[in-house]
UniProtKB/TrEMBL annotation, chain A:
<dbReference type="GO" id="GO:0031267">
    <property type="term" value="F:small GTPase binding"/>
</dbReference>
<dbReference type="InterPro" id="IPR013713">
    <property type="entry name" value="XPO2_central"/>
</dbReference>
<feature type="domain" description="Importin N-terminal">
    <location>
        <begin position="29"/>
        <end position="102"/>
    </location>
</feature>
<dbReference type="Pfam" id="PF03378">
    <property type="entry name" value="CAS_CSE1"/>
</dbReference>
<dbReference type="GO" id="GO:0006611">
    <property type="term" value="P:protein export from nucleus"/>
</dbReference>
<comment type="similarity">
    <text>Belongs to the XPO2/CSE1 family.</text>
</comment>
<protein>
    <recommendedName>
        <fullName>Exportin-2</fullName>
    </recommendedName>
</protein>
<keyword id="KW-0539">Nucleus</keyword>
<dbReference type="InterPro" id="IPR005043">
    <property type="entry name" value="XPO2_C"/>
</dbReference>
UniProtKB/TrEMBL annotation, chain B:
<dbReference type="InterPro" id="IPR011989">
    <property type="entry name" value="ARM-like"/>
</dbReference>
<dbReference type="GO" id="GO:0061608">
    <property type="term" value="F:nuclear import signal receptor activity"/>
</dbReference>
<dbReference type="Pfam" id="PF00514">
    <property type="entry name" value="Arm"/>
</dbReference>
<dbReference type="InterPro" id="IPR000225">
    <property type="entry name" value="Armadillo"/>
</dbReference>
<dbReference type="Pfam" id="PF01749">
    <property type="entry name" value="IBB"/>
</dbReference>
<protein>
    <recommendedName>
        <fullName>Importin subunit alpha</fullName>
    </recommendedName>
</protein>
<dbReference type="GO" id="GO:0005634">
    <property type="term" value="C:nucleus"/>
</dbReference>
<keyword id="KW-0653">Protein transport</keyword>
<dbReference type="InterPro" id="IPR024931">
    <property type="entry name" value="Importin_alpha"/>
</dbReference>
Length: 963, 505
């Protein structure tokens, strides 16, 4: 591609087409551009266009296309072709900074992004001039240019804030510091001077403050990894100026916007971060500046308003104070009673107030409100910051702070009492204050922090929480109701049981509240109370204690699911599940209604499953109701099937675990209704979700266990599909053990003739996987499988199938896999399978006695004795450490996501062999009677002494001798 | 400059937990890169002699000092009159001894070094030798290129010969000059060593020598032990060790300090080097010195013991047997944060040992001060304390982990999750994950999760899932998914090519 006018023209046309709303025009143009982007000069053509095109739209389009091109192609990936030729790379780097700086803002941003992408790859080694080029622009005096440089620098350096220390990283930082730190400092000073000369020029100030924000951000990045010598030497300059800026105000920079933070707020917020960084990491050096910052930040807080636009600044500033006040050597900055009072009064209390924005969220965005309030995702909120400050101050000033706040709490409660409907927010603040003051006591029960005995939680509960919950109107003052319920939830371990018991019917009553927050909190509180443990690890509340409320509890819980906004409320569903679990048989009378309601819910959500937690608890609840009912009356399973089956066939994806449970409950063969499902279970689409795999494998296992004969006779054409599932699973390092579970079930349960024709291919697949990626987990599963095969089909069959794939293969497997790796097998059942399998190989496989395989006989025996006697070899090669070790397989699916649908362990050799050591002794004895003299000689010539001793022990225990 | 920072190396060791115990100890690595200012409490590399009073009053009496210009000095030094030479040398020495802005560079540029070296050899005039040695001492105390000029001027050999001078002042000044040269760099140190200075220096150590002189000798010896890449050769170290052992029994603060520094350099390396020092039986005395109220003794003795416990388990055991663990608690709560940091670092390496050593750490009551440091220490100290906990959890038995948790370690660890240091955050996440796994084995996970929740740990870990550092985000996610989530979201496996059995046929 030449850098010609014709090409520029063509490119312009195609770029224009990429903006066309009609995909028939847009798509081909995009395709074309992609097809030519590999050509030399393509990026230069784009740069030419964005510089020289007459059409502004084309300029912007070219800049975006250029940035995306760089993003896709600049990185040189090892073993892949270099996608941009060297000459283009050099030309781009030579021109881009200049181009970026001379472009209007819209394009500047794109080019700045492109520079940081390039910089990430090439800087500093392959782009040594970049820094000098940037630094030189500082002198230009043109703040449009300077801000462009600063922005680019920020995008290049911000990674210093989150990357791990390494020689490479620090080399780069050192280089940057050498070239950048001094010019940046000078620029900082000059910019501040300009701010005072332009103090009356709003537009100039805005540009200058944008620079100051960027400079402060760069300061943060450059000082993040460690305190650089340069900045230590120049701390005076930076900190004095930061301090001045913190205290600065200029009417011209104030904004009318209530939501969006203005330049002043952004700058001060960043300065708070910078000061916090120094206070946290470079305390020794920063110590002498710190008191001034504490004062400045505190003053800042006192003078900052309630508007949302100040939220970030305020929460940063409070967090700064919170982190400083709990350090022993800064204690003195806070200990004055007036200071404390002032902080409590002017910083903490105002920021704990329930604001208009909170009220809006409570009513209109309750899900978000609950998430923030209940699940603690309120990290950046003012309330949270104020709470952290209370805790920080309590570390040294618990008494005084509690005293100050008690006064506040009382006066706020009095205000509320005067006129509840107007002053309810005062009570909210009072409850919040008590909660944050006392929540320290929560950890106290674990003996970690000291008790704040100054707060009497029970008294407050009785006097101020219970009355609200007892009021007849559950919809009055919903925020206070939510506060009260939350109080029970939080202090459930502190409030005595008798008081909690009193609150249970009240909570049940509040399940009917219209406010989503209130009924959700009520459900959640009940659920939490029902999980509490009393003595002897039993639940604190017994079924008998809750019995009087069973009917109303269940009714209200299900009714709550019909309230607007709560049709898939996971807290309510969880409370339902927990109630079942606690009440057990007490729910049986209600089962018909319950199961109808649950299945209706199931049917409804299955059309559009969107709340995984909700669904999970729903399945738990269904499992529980089956368990509870069928324990009392096994025949009831039929009625569940009637109720559930119709639904289940529709929603295969979610129900598999419940189905397994149902299927396993059948003692004999599979009902035909289940068989109709079987083909659907082999659908590839089901297996694409990793999360489905354990449950689906378990269901297929249940089919094989209960219905292998039916499958063999009526669904033989489905066997390839079954093996296809196996094939997919063993191809994945994460799921191969699931594949083996399935394969083992096939081997164990399917009639041999039905899988005959596939056997060899199964082994070939396993060998392919062994060659491609051999992991410890795979080996372990493989060993269990071949031994199970040996038990099921005989030792000779195993030898034949190996040698049928390739001559002498059997010997290789023995020598390279079984003998050296058998020690790694874990799990009692797994070990037993291997022991019995190997015993068979030793004693029931003629080729082991009289071919070249004979030399492996004693080593195999030795390894078997090792399996019995030596500790398990749990070493894992280093390179496998990144495979999730959690996945270590068991013979049975360890999977039990639904805790109440758990599967029992299964021992496929249990009926044949009780003690595998005795079994070995007996089998050896049998072998020795068949060929007298050979076994003792093989044993005595090359078995090591320890092993021999163990073996003699087995023989003695079995009361047999070798002939 | 040695530094405590070697996180890359440490993390690598940490990651392969339990796989190779010997890998877990943190060697004090030389990181050539430092963003920080040089440390302030380290031993002086070079020292200028700016004593106002001449240590040799006789020479002062013999000739009254004359004040001369540099030109006059140059011309007189190049003359043949010994007296004028002496006067000029003394004047030069005085210029070099000025407290402020000594004209080191000017004197070298004036070409005086070769003449000064000549004067070292004029054994007939000890006072001239003395002044010349002093002048060269001060030149060598300057920046590297000036030290280099002294060596290139041929000063080393004549200085070593002066070690046998009958004139004590001359001898002492020569010791000093050699110390400055050796302190410059491993290259110059090796020039001094290969010129056979060590036996002569060692011969000077005796019970009759004055304390100031002995201080000088000790300091010079310590400089001969300084630097790695390369280390001083093992043979020379072997010669020096008995003398260092002897000096370590002294009662003079400076001598003890410099001896300890020497030992700290010698132990700042591989296990063989550490073994050489441990083999001299020096540890009980070192541990005793760790109790010193003198910071100048405490710092290097602690550093040395800290270095030793980076060695093998056996070497560490010798330090433990010498009682280091009974001294460490008081050092962990020392008023100086630099001492706390160094003590915590030493502790972290004991914690990297086998569980028996971890047990001794517990028995000696190390957990409460450790938790106190995690809570209230300066950040650099907290970092070392976090490493200690990390090593502890890696090598500790389940019982020991329980004790660790019971000591209240989780609260400060959780608080430190908001620290602005990605590596520390990652390590804490790993520690939490490790403790959770242990709790799982004991069926105590629920209780631990509750505790973590109450400490605000879950909030913090959840927030860390969004950390810009991918490894941190992933680790946090794993913890939440495997320990705090009752239901995993369905994760769709992407890009797996499915080739169905049925399709193949």
């Amino acid at each position: 591609m030449e850098l010609s006018d014709a090409n520029l023209q063509t490119l312009t046309e195609y770029l224009k087409k990429t903006l066309d709303p009609d995909p028939a025009i847009r798509r081909p143009a995009e395709k074309f551009l992609e097809s030519v982007e590999g050509n030399q000069n393509y990026p230069l053509l784009l740069l030419t266009l964005l510089e020289k095109s007459q059409d502004n739209v084309i300029k912007v389009c070219a800049s975006v296309t250029f940035k995306n091109y760089i993003k896709r192609n600049w990185r040189i990936v090892e073993d892949e072709p270099n996608k941009i030729c060297e000459a283009d790379r050099v030309a781009i780097k030579a021109n881009i900074v200049h181009l970026m700086l001379s472009s209007p803002e819209q394009m500047q941003k794109q080019l700045s992004d492109a520079i940081s992408i390039i910089g990430r790859e090439d800087f500093p080694q392959k782009w040594p001039d970049l820094l000098t080029e940037m630094v030189n622009r500082f002198q230009s005096g043109d703040f449009h240019v300077i801000n462009g440089v600063l922005r680019t620098a920020h995008s290049l350096f911000k990674r210093y804030r989150h990357e791990f220390k390494s020689n490479e990283l620090w080399t780069e930082i050192k280089l940057v510091l050498d070239a950048f730190a001094l010019p940046l400092t000078n620029l900082f000073k000059a910019t501040i001077e300009l701010c005072s000369t332009h103090a009356n020029d709003a537009s100039a100030l805005r540009i200058l403050f944008s620079s100051l924000i960027l400079i402060s951000k760069l300061f943060y990045s450059l000082n993040f990894q460690d305190l650089p010598e340069f900045f230590e030497d120049n701390m005076e300059t930076w900190m004095n100026n930061f301090h001045t800026l913190l205290t600065l105000d200029n009417k011209l920079l104030q904004t009318d916007d209530e939501e969006e933070a203005g330049l002043l707020e952004l700058l001060k917020s960043q300065i708070c971060d910078n000061a916090a960084l120094y206070a946290q990491k470079y305390d020794e050096e920063f110590q002498r500046y710190l008191p001034r910052f504490v004062t400045a930040i505190w003053n800042l807080l006192v003078t900052t308003g309630q508007e949302v636009k100040y939220d970030l600044l305020v929460s940063n500033a409070i967090q700064f104070l919170a982190s400083v006040c709990e350090r022993p050597h800064y204690k003195n900055l806070f200990e004055d009673q007036n200071t404390l009072t002032s902080i409590c009064e002017k910083v903490i209390v105002p920021n704990m107030e329930f604001r208009a924005a909170d009220e809006e969220a409570f009513e209109d965005n309750s899900e978000e409100y609950i998430r923030r309030d209940l699940e603690g995702s309120d990290i950046d909120t003012r309330r949270r910051a104020a709470c952290d400050l209370v805790r920080g101050l309590c570390k040294f000033f618990e008494g005084p702070v509690t005293g100050i706040f008690s006064g506040y709490v009382n006066s706020m409660l009095q205000e509320y009492a005067k006129n509840p409907s107007v002053n309810w927010k005062h009570k909210d603040a009072a409850i919040y204050l008590v909660t944050s003051l006392a929540s320290k006591a929560q950890t106290q029960k674990h003996g970690i922090t000291q008790a704040n005995e100054l707060v009497n939680l029970t008294e407050f509960f009785v006097n101020h929480i219970l009355p609200d919950l007892k009021s007849a109107n559950v919809n009055e003052f919903p925020v206070l109701k939510a506060d009260g319920i939350k109080y029970i939830m939080i202090f459930r371990n502190q409030v005595p049981k008798e008081h909690l018991l009193v609150s249970i019917p009240l909570l049940i009553n509040h399940l009917q509240a219209e406010s989503i927050v209130v009924h959700t909190y009520a459900a959640h509180a009940l659920e939490r109370l029902f999980t509490m443990k009393g003595p002897n690890n039993a639940t604190l509340f017994t079924a008998a204690e809750i019995a009087p409320f069973v009917e109303i509890l269940l009714t209200n819980l299900f009714k709550a699911l019909t309230l607007p906004g709560s049709s898939e409320n996971e807290y309510i569903m969880k409370a339902i599940m927990r109630s079942f679990s606690l009440l057990q048989e007490a729910i049986i009378p209600y089962i018909p209604t319950l199961i109808t309601q649950l299945t209706q819910k199931l049917l409804a959500v299955s059309k559009n499953p969107s709340k995984p937690h909700f669904n999970h608890y729903m399945f738990e609840a269904i499992c529980l109701s089956i368990r509870i009912t069928c324990k009392a009356n096994p025949a009831a399973v039929v009625s569940f099937e009637e109720a559930l089956f119709l639904v289940f066939t529709e929603i295969l994806q979610n129900d598999v675990q419940v189905m397994s449970l149902l299927l396993e409950t059948h003692k004999s063969d599979i009902p035909s209704s289940y068989m109709a499902l079987f083909p659907h279970l082999l659908q590839p689409v089901l297996w694409e979700r990793t999360g489905n795999i354990p449950a689906l494998v378990r269901l297929l296992q249940a089919f094989l266990e209960r219905g292998s004969n039916t499958i063999a006779s009526a669904a033989a054409d489905k066997i390839p599909g079954l093996l296809g599932v196996f094939q997919k699973l063993i191809a994945s390092k994460a799921n191969d053990h699931q594949g083996f579970y399935l394969l083992n079930s096939i081997i164990e349960h399917m009639p041999p003739e039905s899988v005959d024709q596939y056997r060899k291919q199964i082994f070939i697949l396993l060998f392919q996987r062994l060659q491609n990626s051999k992991t410890t987990k795979f080996i372990k599963s493989f060993l269990v499988f071949i031994n199970l095969y040996c038990i099921k089909y005989g030792a000779l069959a195993l030898q034949e199938i190996f040698d049928g794939i390739q001559p002498k293969m059997f010997g290789m497997v023995l020598e390279k896999i079984i003998i050296p790796e058998i020690q790694k097998v874990s799990g009692n059942v797994e070990k037993k399978i291997c022991a019995v399998g190997i015993t068979k190989l030793l004693t029931e496989c003629p080729p082991m006695m009289d071919t070249e395989y004979t030399k492996l006989w004693t080593p195999l025996l030795q390894s078997l004795i090792g399996l019995f006697e030596l500790p398990e070899d749990d070493t894992i090669p280093d390179e496998e450490h990144f495979i999730d070790i959690e996945d270590t397989p068991g013979y049975q699916t360890a999977f039990s996501q639904l805790a109440f649908a758990g599967k029992k362990e299964h021992d496929p050799v249990g009926h044949m062999v009780n003690n595998p050591k005795i079994h070995l002794a007996q089998s050896l004895h049998k072998l020795s009677t068949a060929c007298p003299g050979r076994v003792p000689s093989m044993v005595s010539t090359s078995l090591n002494a320890d092993a021999l001793q163990y073996l003699q022990g087995y023989l003695q225990a079995a009361s047999v001798t070798l002939l | 400059m040695p530094t405590l920072e070697a996180p890359e190396e440490r993390l690598r060791k940490f990651k392969y937990r339990g796989k190779d115990a010997s890998m877990r100890r943190q060697q004090r690595m030389v990181v050539s890169l430092e963003l920080r200012k040089a440390k302030k409490d380290e031993q002086a590399l070079k020292r200028r002699n700016i004593t106002d009073l001449s240590p040799n009053p006789s020479s002062e009496k013999l000739a009254k000092a004359v004040s001369l210009t540099l030109d006059e000095i140059v011309s007189r030094v190049n003359g043949t009159d010994p007296h004028l030479c002496f006067q000029a040398t003394q004047a030069a020495r005085k210029m070099l001894s000025q407290e402020r802005n000594p004209a080191l560079k000017l004197i070298v540029e004036a070409g005086l070094v070769p003449r000064l070296v000549e004067f070292l050899k004029s054994s007939l005039y000890p006072s001239l030798q003395f002044e010349a040695a002093w002048a060269l001492t001060n030149i060598a105390s300057g920046p590297s290129e000036l030290t280099q000029a002294v060596v290139e001027g041929g000063a080393v050999q004549p200085l070593i010969e002066l070690l046998s001078s009958p004139d004590v002042a001359v001898c002492e000044q020569a010791v000093w000059a050699l110390g400055n040269i050796a302190g410059d760099s491993p290259e110059l140190r090796d020039i001094v060593i290969s010129s056979n200075a060590v036996p002569h220096l060692l011969a000077l150590v005796s019970s009759t020598v004055s304390i100031p002189f002995l201080r000088n000798i000790t300091w010079t010896l310590s400089n001969l032990c300084r630097y790695k890449n390369p280390y001083p050769c093992a043979k020379v170290v072997k010669q020096m060790l008995p003398v260092l052992f002897y000096l370590l029994q002294h009662h003079d603060t400076e001598i003890l300090s410099d001896t300890c520094w020497a030992l700290s350099y010698l132990t700042d390396g591989c296990n063989e080097r550490i073994g050489q020092v441990v083999g001299t039986g020096v540890l009980p005395r070192l541990v005793e010195l760790m109790k010193s109220s003198e910071l100048s003794i405490l710092t290097p003795s602690l550093r040395t013991v800290g270095n030793i416990v980076t060695g093998t388990d056996q070497q560490t055991q010798v330090a433990i047997d010498a009682g280091m663990l009974s001294v460490l608690p008081q050092l962990l709560s020392h008023p100086r944060s630099s001492i706390q940091k160094e003590a915590a670092w030493a502790l972290s390496n004991v914690a990297a040992g086998p569980c028996q050593q971890i047990q001794q750490l517990i028995t000696h009551g190390m957990l409460p001060p450790l938790v106190a440091l995690l809570k209230n220490g300066e950040f650099k100290v907290q970092k070392e304390a976090v490493w200690t906990v990390a090593n502890f959890t890696t090598g500790g038995t389940v019982d020991q982990l329980i004790q660790l948790v019971q000591s209240g370690v989780l609260e400060p660890l959780v608080n430190l999750l908001s620290v602005q240091d990605p590596k520390i955050v990652l390590i804490i996440l790993d520690v939490i994950s490790c403790i959770l796994q242990a709790a799982e084995k004991l069926f105590k996970k629920e209780k631990l999760c509750l505790l973590l929740e109450e400490l605000g740990g879950i909030d913090k870990i959840e927030a860390l899932q969004l950390h810009e550092n991918r490894q941190i985000g992933q680790t946090a996610l794993n913890i939440i998914e495997s320990h705090f989530f009752e239901v995993n979201d369905f994760a769709v496996e992407r890009g797996a090519h499915i080739s169905w059995w049925a399709d193949q046929q």
